[in-house]
Amino acid sequence: MGTALVDSNVLIAARIANDHHHDEGQAIVEAIETAELPTGRVPEHALTEVLNYVHTRVGNETAIETLDGLQASTDFELDETTKADLDGGRSLFRQYDGLSATDAILVAYMNRTGIDAIYSFDDDFDAVDGITRLDTPHNPYS
Fold first, then answer.
1. 3-134 architecture in CATH?
2. In sequence order, what are the beta bridge partners of 133?
3. Phi, psi angles (nearest 5°) of residue 39
4. In this predicted model, what pLDDT tens digit does every residue of 28-46 receive, in sequence order?
5. Structure letter (DSSP) for residue 118
6. Burial class of 61 by CB neighbour count within 10 A (0 to 12, 13 to 18, 19+)
7. Are 4 and 37 in contact (CB under 8 A)?
């Protein structure tokens, strides 16, 4: 069925009940976990962002539960970010004014791995050619 990147804001929204994208984030995560959507890939840069934010907003216990759940999942894949991703991200960060440094690294990761779809609530990805951003539980491969 394929693989799609999952941005940190989707995982954060799914874990924090008062996040303004909570329902959408939870729907995307649940659809990935039930294999209605492609496998969700989470590079370490996004994972670190999720865990730090959840830890700060709702506590260490929830952050640990988030990490343990993602590591145990067969529907989410955790992957490392390489030096090539960092170098490519640096270049993209300079090229796209609205792209955050973390998002630029994610785009470089997507370019390296051949992933062309990302679940994200950040519309800055829309400016990048060759990437499909999804903010609902829609399967881009069906």
1. 3-Layer(aba) Sandwich (3.40)
2. 118
3. -55, 135
4. 999 999 999 999 999 999 9
5. E
6. exposed
7. yes
Q: Where are the domains of the chain?
A: 3-134
Model pLDDT for residues 50-90, shown as the tens digit of each residue: 999 999 999 999 999 999 999 999 999 999 999 999 999 99
Nearest residue to 7 via CA among 103, 104, 132, 139: 103
pTM, full prediction: 0.95
pLDDT at 141: 86
Give the Å distances, CA to CA, from 75 to 13, 23, 35, 59, 63: 18, 19, 7, 25, 19
Q: Which residue has the tokens 């729907």?
A: 27
Name the DSSP letter for residue 123. G
